[in-house]
Amino acid sequence: MRVLATYSIKGGVGKTATAVNLAYLAARAGLSTLVWDLDPQGSATWLFRIRAKVKGGGRALVRGTRLADGAIKGTDFESLDVLPADFSYRHLDLDLDEAGKPRRRLARVLAPVADDYDLVVLDCPPGISLVSESIFAAADALLVPLVPTTLSLRTLDQLRAFVTGNDDVGRLAVLPFFSMVDRRKRLHRDVIESLVGPRHGMLAAAVPTSSDVERMGVHRAPVPVFAPRSRATAAFEALWSEVSMHRY
Amino acid sequence: MLADDVTIDQILTALSVIGSVQMDRPARNERTFLDTFDWRVHEAGWSLHHTRDRIGRRLALHDRASGRMRVSAVAETAPRFTADLPTGPLHRALAPVLDVRTLLPLATVRTESTTVRILDTETKTVLRVVVDHDAIADPAVPEPDLGRRARLVAVKGYEPWAKRAGAALAQHLGIEPGPDDLLERAVRATGRHPGDYSSKLRLTLDPALSTGEAATVILGTFLATIEVNRPGARADLDPEFLHDLRVAVRRTRATLKALASVVPEAIRQDVREGFTWLGRATGEARDLDVMVLDLSDAERDAAAQGSDAARELAPLHAHLRLRRAAAYEALDRDLGSPRCQGLLDLWRTALARPWPVPAAIEAGGEAGGETGGEGAIQAGGEAGGEGDGTEPVTGVARARVLAAHRRVTRRGRAITATSAAEDLHDLRKRAKELRYLLECFASLFSRRDVDPIVTELKALQDNLGRFQDHQVQADALRRFADEMVHGAGAPTATLMRMGRLAADQDRASEQARAEFAERFAAFDRPQNHRRFARLFAPAPTPAPAR
């Protein structure tokens, strides 16, 4: 089981869209896939038409009084399941802290289902917190959507500094890619040009700003389901292809 | 299964009672069911198939009882050996089950599926009802159509919907639940059935059989094993085909020896010589199989200790591969030869006729040769001596087992610390004969009583086997080193490593030799003799009626 987390310190950069579409493409490619929607807003859960509710909340999961398997729901798509969000996840920091050994807790929640899934995609809430640290310890790679602006680059540097300086997560791969790219904007073009190439550790695939991504909320489905020939679908397919080949 | 007249529209109507329904476009897939020749995956309670559909190609392992998928993995082609399995949970689950056996395609099924999805108020899929039309892909199969069936595929977390849909289908269309037996139906269409072959001897004899009748049953079972394993051994599918074939040949020879007097005289000599030849003809390939397997184990152990054994032993591996390929070529020639075919045809024809064949019974064959001095066996009747084959099998079985036990005991007791290795090798052969007899006739006696005896015997055989096999391997390693030096050459590090391996084998053989006395004493203890006597002593002759 590989664990991939879509993560960003900033909000509104396309984490959930990336998690949902990549998980869908992974399942379509035959991988048994689980999305764990860790964001209390529950957007990924809602997009899969599942109720954002876990009996006992995040507290029961991290304390082990409720097993993940009993909370997992199947989606409309074969081989693709969701461990739903719950509004109580807003207190997940506290729950982790109280449970003891907080950095290992999320990995422990996933351990019993490790043989059931080839891939777990964690859709993470923004920010750096105890939840983030537990995510870093559970994940094999962080997939980091980056809007091509100067400030975004600064947050990426902060993230890299955090990961590098943290012994617990030294093996964690950080895979940034450009998201919400608008090539009409000169700044986007300049930033992309200045950072393109393996030297900067950026993935080659970039996801454009697209009304099709926004329409996920209308269709409550991944983009390839309702717009299979769109630019957004092509971008997510390219991203999945690159991520699935990456040796993280 | 669905009756021919049930339509998709009727299914849609029936299901619309429980929720809104939506039909997907029909989809096709092709599944190849895989298992070892001896059904190891099936025996473990699973089914394994490689699927090709519009999504791609993957391998899936299911629990047969629940129908639930345990694990799946992307796999471009169907794997053959453990090493071909994708790493991860699938490999972890299957590797210990398959061991050295190859996965064989059992049947390929083409399926056209129509999926009806049940949606809840959020238009979320909560159940899939899949109507499959299955057919065997092989055009040579006489009746490839496997019919239509409806499957309720529960969505995780929404299981109660499956019960509701099942009730609706039963109420409106009379569709009742049945087993998910596609694997079984598919393999039956190809002429096999699950569990139709096992390496274990499964022989049940009716005590009412005469010795001649029992002999044809026993020997017929061994012949069937030889014949079903012959193609796999010739094609070198995996080492177990040859192993099982050789065991059946040895069992045949032991039974021919023990029941020599009931084998039709006209063919007795030819058959005995034929199976002796077959045993020899298959020996070298098997020895090399064992070498390759043991070398892989030795390499793994050495690698675990951080040694660079794999690199050093690579030239030996290459040499063994060449030798093994040549041995298997010779094996293929021998097993496909007119001599082999003639032997099996002759034997099959002989076993198809009733035994005993009225004929003069040879006095004192090999089987009875040693019995004279080790306890008289009454001729004929229940006591089971050199009768004509019409006597009940149970008495003969008792006599033969006791005679074989006496031989093992006598020869074992004669072995001292200075005895020649050949004496122990000979004892091993006699112990094998006893084991085969016990296994052949086990069904005539209480399993509970026979099993502890077999366990004790196995321990002795294991000791004798280790003594001889390690010695054979040490000799083989030195012979290979010599061949390599005089052939394509070999690096010094390889030769030194082979020398160390040969020394390890010598030590293991010596260790087994040192343990022999204790091991034999355990087998020879009075309790075991009492067990044999209790189980196999001749039944008391009823007192004459007054």
In terms of topology, how is this protein built?
The complex is a heterodimer of chains A (248) and B (546).
Chain A (H helix, E strand, L loop, with lengths): L1 E5 L8 H14 L4 E5 L5 H5 L9 H7 L4 H4 L1 E2 L5 E4 L8 H8 L2 H9 L8 E5 L6 H9 L2 E6 L3 H15 L8 E9 L4 H10 L10 E3 L2 H4 L1 H4 L3 H4 L4 H15 L3
Chain B lengths: L7 H8 L4 E4 L3 E9 L4 H4 L2 E8 L3 E7 L5 E6 L14 H10 L5 E16 L5 E12 L8 E10 L5 H14 L8 H8 L21 H24 L4 H20 L6 H17 L1 H22 L4 H27 L2 H15 L13 H4 L23 H21 L7 H21 L5 H40 L5 H32 L2 H11 L10
Antiparallel strand pairs in B: 1-6, 2-3, 2-6, 3-4, 4-5, 6-7, 7-8
Helix pairs in contact in B: 1-4, 6-7, 6-11, 6-13, 7-8, 7-9, 7-14, 8-11, 9-10, 10-16, 13-14, 13-17, 14-15, 15-16, 15-17
Structure description:
The complex is a heterodimer of chains A (248) and B (546). With 248 residues, chain A is an alpha/beta fold. Chain A is 44% helix and 16% strand. Chain A has one domain (2-245): 3-Layer(aba) Sandwich (Rossmann fold). Chain A is built from 13 helices and eight strands. In chain A, helix 1 packs across helix 13 (231-245), helix 3 (57-63) packs parallel to helix 5 (92-99) and helix 6 (102-110) crosses helix 7. The longest helix of chain A is centred in the middle third of the chain and has 15 residues, at 150-164. Chain B has helices spanning 8-15, 40-43, 89-98, 160-173, 182-189, 211-234, 239-258, 265-281, 283-304, 309-335, 338-352, 366-369, 393-413, 421-441, 447-486, 492-523, 526-536; strands at 20-23, 27-35, 46-53, 57-63, 69-74, 104-119, 125-136, 145-154. Chain B has three domains: 8-181, Hypothetical Protein Pfu-838710-001 (Beta Barrel); 209-354, Alpha solenoid (CHAD domain); 394-538, CHAD domain (Alpha solenoid). Chain B starts with 7 loop residues before the first helix and ends in a 10-residue tail after the last helix. The model of chain B is unreliable at 359-385 (pLDDT under 50). In chain B, strands 1, 2, 3, 4, 5, 6, 7 and 8 form an eight-stranded antiparallel β-sheet that branches. Helix content of chain B is 55%, strand content 13%. Classes of the chains: A alpha/beta (248), B alpha+beta (546). The A-B interface holds A 1, 28-32, 48-51, 71-76, 79, 81, 114-116, 118, 220 and B 55-58, 69-74, 88-89, 92, 117, 122-125, 154-158.
